[in-house]
């Protein structure tokens, strides 16, 4: 493991955390030369994910400092390797969480490479050459073309960026549970944040009856009138929860705070499914009786394959689905991370990487 290898000769400007204080400062580093399977990308925008906070502060005890966060990346291709045929210079592209997988296991061969045992991520991972990966809080990226997707021409590059993590995270459960091509189901979305608001848009675009389930009564107006949700349940209101018992076919849980699944499971019909995509740092409560007496299923899901990510992007282009964002400049990264930690964003921060030069 090394920060660079002899092939890392390209000097890049970026922004990194150097210790568990999590403070981001300007950082000059090296990237590898564009290899035969690579594309070089001039980064325009990079979304800010809650995972970035965990890494810069080493909340999970796995951070390799200095860490350059960012895995919701959009930009233009400036160079292509000789083995690359599906991209050309000037293409609008995106890079999400994946940097490398083994390419040989059953999951890689079955278009589920995101579950490969040897998966390495866009930042804080170890690439095939043994170097540490640096993410999208930087001016340029060299990426293996097999982990890059096309951005449809009608999609704004800034609002498309969060779809590369938040979007695919909520899209995959829709696809896995036959909710992309089958209409008319009653689905619930727990939480109306960076993931939840995109999930509502997917649900409506795919022809379902969408109920937002939230602890915040103030979000009802937003859910119904701005995002098009059909119904709204305040999860702390026992009367509302009881009235909606056994009414939903499917629930997507996007909440990243510790909570109990018991009352939410009661909202499902018999044989209903609840999928967890939020990642609480403490165990959630999973009572047995709501599962047993409703023959209900609880599943987990993480991002998606590159094939699924491209499918999602194409559908977003078709249905005009984009993230609702707040643009920040590079000198506002620390402020953005702090506000994100306090849930003070509607709904996703996106860093204008290619904007005017600024200093932290």
From TrEMBL:
Cofactor(s) listed: Zn(2+)
Family annotation (Gene3D superfamilies): Medium-chain alcohol dehydrogenases, catalytic domain, NAD(P)-binding Rossmann-like Domain
Keyword match Nucleotidyltransferase: no
PROSITE patterns (UniProt xref): ADH_ZINC (PS00059)
CDD domains: CAD1 (cd05283)
Alphabetical UniProt keywords: Metal-binding, Oxidoreductase, Zinc
InterPro entries, alphabetized: ADH-like_C (IPR013149), ADH-like_N (IPR013154), ADH_Zn_CS (IPR002328), CAD-like (IPR047109), ER (IPR020843), GroES-like_sf (IPR011032), NAD(P)-bd_dom_sf (IPR036291)
Gene Ontology MF terms: cinnamyl-alcohol dehydrogenase activity; zinc ion binding
Domain annotation Enoyl reductase (ER): ranges: 19-351
Pfam families the record matches: ADH_N, ADH_zinc_N
Coiled coil: none
SMART domains: PKS_ER
GO BP of this protein: lignin biosynthetic process
Entry similarity comment: Belongs to the zinc-containing alcohol dehydrogenase family.
Protein name per its UniProtKB record: Enoyl reductase (ER) domain-containing protein
